[in-house]
């Protein structure tokens, strides 16, 4: 043996893991959860797994295949969570629903890093896959709706459906933020909120009919307003990455994409401007509500009224705010995050004053749940009248305050 052979370190032997395919799926899911479908490439995933792109393609033919696998895994987990064991036949209706709530919440917490994919990125599934995905979630929601019927047989089908959707929405809202609690405390909080939604009295005198709204189409002299509205509508319908400046210009009746740049620096600037408007609206609402209320609970109730009304008026913007935030330029994102945190902190302060038994961390979880519940209800029920504005208000009161407030 030569001295050179003695001095050279032995080369490490790299063995292919037996579970390489599962490892790739897990790493790609984490990447999609952090950056969204359009924010991740196959090269990114290969680097995360420490393999070549060529080796990655031997396991999965495309980025879409990985994305599809994760979303269908999540919808399959929803179906599994609502299954009852054979011994459940001997349980009471509340025991059966309690078991399913535990399973839904436990599965959601275990998959928190990718839960947001199912909420905001589902529209990028191809039609057949989208139908399978939504069909599985619809079946899971239908099962919870039937379990609620057994607990509260006096409720009609629409009321049970609203509550079932709300249970899933509150649980999955933890995927939209990074507020943290211990897994045990988080599970207990989400479960208590789920039961509050099931048990709440959402009836009462209906709210007075809203006066007819004037057209929100801005005058042609306010072209920057029209551009903003049309851009948000397109982002909502097709997703930010799939919308071009040319399409925004056409929607706003401009002759060319270059005309947009007289009003906005680019597509991301349009998105940031829309988000700043949403943040300003919520900031003004806080000042108004706190200044006129006699108690923290009343102030929070007033804030909920204003938030829901604004969300109904600008459904597209409310959805886009959650789904497309990652596409804002970094500098604008920092500013918007700061504004968002200030707003949430004010809501949390009011909630902990109204419910002293809650910690600030628990209150923050509930505030986020209330915000995202509006979006999910709008997405599921849309404008078909099943979930009117007054009902949404009472649902948000239940999520935050634990019960609907008395009618004012």
Automatic annotation (TrEMBL):
Superkingdom in the source lineage: Bacteria
Keyword field contains DNA-binding: yes
Region entry Disordered, spans: 1-20
UniProt-listed PROSITE patterns: HTH_TETR_1, HTH_TETR_2
Pfam families: TetR_N (PF00440)
Gene3D superfamilies: Homeodomain-like, Tetracycline Repressor, domain 2
Biased composition (Basic and acidic residues): 1-11
Record key words, sorted: DNA-binding
Residues covered by the HTH tetR-type domain: 18-78, 221-282
Annotated DNA-binding residue span(s): 41-60
Name of this protein: TetR/AcrR family transcriptional regulator
Lineage: Bacteria, Bacillati, Actinomycetota, Actinomycetes, Mycobacteriales
